[in-house]
Design brief:
By secondary structure, the protein is mainly α. The chain contains 18 helices and no strands. It has a single domain, classed as Hydantoin permease (Orthogonal Bundle), CATH 1.10.4160.10. The two termini are 41 Å apart. 57% of the residues are buried.
């Protein structure tokens, strides 16, 4: 029951799709969150558990989302409605679109921070700190400057709009064909620089040599959550990107490539962060402030640190943009498919609405810092609703839908269309029916309670 709307566009090549889907997955979750969570949870031991979770939970759900997308050639709402018309399952698609809308509103603010730090690195504004505390105070004063935050939020959203408005092939695919290889080259340059610092190998040892005594049930749950969120699952992005796949594409191969690329980026990021942090005698478990408070202090003390700072924050901006355009595309695809809007209208209107919704999030650290809803700033509230409720529930229901409602057997038929036999179908069916839903439910319950 593919959509007859031929104006949606298709990926021109597998590499273009893999780079775009990897770009969606490779966001701030990989280059910002993964390093500090690894540092807080034992280094090498956490990495091992994370990798196990990626392949036991993340990969099966990603294949399920790609399969739903290609089967229907529709957005998340349309996909569920096509397979189970007018049923409650359509609500799962609604959650995906809503999650994309809400996440981009505050993600655009954080993306603006990365653009601002590129500019500040170029002007040497963030390369003169004597300690992480000094860098942290600078960051605190920066995000409290509401006018500057909104300006960079606008710039970030403008970049996303400019790419998505050109369509799947001429916009998203062409942009990711340039941005993703650039990101990898930058990562490799930074990794080489970090590894050549005196004392860097202490960081490598912390990162790659597991201490199994540090693996606890809590660490497993945290790794499970990070594996799920780092792959952009549960927000409709992978389903939407899958809807632009041609029938000839090998779904299993494409899924494996995306997962491997995304995981490689996260692992390389650790090889940049931990050698540099240990070389400068700092603590690896600094938490969320690692990127904006600790690393500027590291760059300040590092030979050629100014250049490294510019390159690093360009990398961070690329990661933010490639994820931002996928989130915008989720919402745009819904209005194009279900409401019949022209792409240009959908991108401009929705980009503007998302920017406006992001303004209160941008003000949450400055002018509106005292304004609280349910004890949280506007930024934290939107983040909490989307990340702790919509994403895990959406991901869990997607796994249940594909495994039990639509059926793993029907999904297998779609996976095997125009390709050789799906040799691991039985394993995948077991994972998507039993392991993935239970694992995501455990993460959801742990976060709530």
């Amino acid at each position: 029951m593919p959509n007859a709307n031929n104006n949606r566009g298709l990926w021109v090549s597998r590499m273009g799709f893999v780079l775009a889907a990897s770009g969606s997955a490779v966001g701030l979750g990989n280059v910002w969150k993964f390093p500090y969570i690894t540092g807080q949870n034992g280094g090498g031991a956490f990495v091992l558990v994370y990798l196990a979770c990626i392949f036991a939970v993340g990969l099966p759900i990603m294949l399920a989302e790609f399969t739903l997308g290609r089967k229907t050639s529709l957005n998340p709402v349309g996909a569920f409605n096509a397979l189970k018309p007018r049923s409650a399952w359509v609500g799962t698609g609604v959650m995906g679109v809503l999650a994309g809308f809400l996440i981009l509103s505050f993600y655009g603010v954080v993306g603006g921070w990365t653009l601002a730090y590129v500019a500040k690195s170029l002007s040497a504004g963030v390369t003169h700190f004597d300690s992480p505390r000094q860098a942290g105070e600078f960051f605190g004063s920066f995000i409290a400057n509401s006018g500057e935050i909104i300006f960079y939020h606008l710039i970030f959203m403008g970049v996303c709009v400019a790419i998505v408005i050109k369509g799947v092939n001429n916009g998203i695919e062409k942009a990711c064909d340039i941005l993703m290889p650039t990101l990898v080259v930058i990562l490799l340059i930074l990794m080489i620089r970090a590894l050549t610092l005196p004392g860097a190998w202490e960081g490598v040892r912390f990162y790659l040599y597991p201490d199994f005594d540090k693996i606890t049930p809590q660490v497993v749950l945290i790794a499970m959550g990070q594996a799920f969120f780092s792959l952009s699952l549960g927000m409709g992005a992978m389903l939407t990107y899958g809807s632009y796949l041609p029938a000839r594409e090998n779904l299993t191969a494409a899924t494996v490539y995306v997962v491997l690329f995304d995981t490689l980026i996260a692992l390389l990021m650790g090889m940049v962060i931990f050698p540099a942090v240990f070389a400068m005698g700092l603590e690896p478990a600094e938490g969320p402030s690692l990127v904006f408070s600790v690393l500027p202090a590291v760059f300040s003390q590092m030979p050629w640190g100014g250049a490294a700072s510019v390159v690093f924050f360009i990398l961070l901006s690329i990661a933010a943009v490639t994820s931002g355009i996928s989130l915008l595309e989720v919402v745009v695809a819904y209005f194009v498919d279900e409401r019949g809007w022209p792409r240009k209208k959908a991108v401009l209107v929705l980009g503007g609405v998302i920017f406006a919704l992001g303004v209160p999030s941008g003000l949450s650290f400055g002018a509106w810092s005292e304004f609280k809803l349910m004890g949280m700033t506007f930024f934290d509230l939107v983040d909490n609703v989307a990340s702790n409720y919509l994403l895990p529930v959406g991901g869990m229901l997607t796994a249940v839908f594909v495994g039990w409602v639509w059926g793993a057997g029907e999904a297998q038929k779609e996976i095997e269309r125009h390709e050789t036999r799906f040799h691991y179908a039985a394993i995948w069916a077991f994972l998507i029916r039993y392991v993935a839903p239970v694992a995501v439910a455990a993460v959801f319950i742990a976060k709530i309670f």
